[in-house]
Amino acid sequence: MVLATVFGGMVGIEREWSNHAAGFRTHILVCLGSATIMLLSVYGFSDFVDEPQVRVDPARLAAQVISGIGFLGAGAILRNGNMIKGLTTAASVWVVAAIGLCVGAGFYTGAGICTFLVLISLYLLNRWEKHLLRHRRVQEVELVIKDDPGVLAEIASAFGEQGIQIANLRMNPAEDHPAERYMQLIFSLKLQNPERFIVALERISLLEKVISLETGNMDAGKSRGAKSGSVSM
Fold first, then answer.
1. What is the reported pLDDT for 113?
2. Which of 78, 92, 158, 196 could connect to 162 by a Cys-Cys bridge, CB 3.0–4.6 Å?
3. Angstrom distance (rounded) from CA 163 to CA 24
4. Domain identity same for 108 and 200
5. Model's pTM, two decimal places?
6. Does residue 20 share a domain with residue 93?
7. pLDDT at position 148, please?
8. Within 10 Å of residue 1's Cβ, how many Cβ atoms?
């Protein structure tokens, strides 16, 4: 049980360090609980082994842990528009349950190797993946514009001149202006150079027909009738 606590904590500390929903204590509890259930399955029913009408199956409780842990993992998955977050954390909770079962069953070698590989996947491979996909970064930009001809073309031109590729565009009526002709635009952009992205935002924020402009980690806003040519990080 102590070993399960250590292995679960080693995985959980990486999730905690990255500010994910299921962190240090959650992973410890999942791993420790799984190990305890496995110990119960192996040793808890030893008094009934010799009973003629009783069939002891140590894998039965383990199977319930594997299927039941999915409910906990689902709580770590969040959806925001077309972006889904938390899948890796949910997977780490599930694999920590498997580590706990291995420890509880006495399969310490498998539990140790699995913990080592999980840490490599979450830390080293995560950094390698970010480095590999650094030129495929996707950024969302939300605009509210006056629905006049030519506005969308000006915005697309501002992105195109800076080498920014538009991956997706969603258009909705602006909820804040139901009685007027305003449109909400949500761009999904593929970025290669953050500095050129800021230049494009500054140019778009100066357009007369653009009412507001927001991004996930940047904000360039202006109220109706007022101009703003700056983008704050």
1. 92
2. 196
3. 42
4. no
5. 0.53
6. yes
7. 79
8. 14
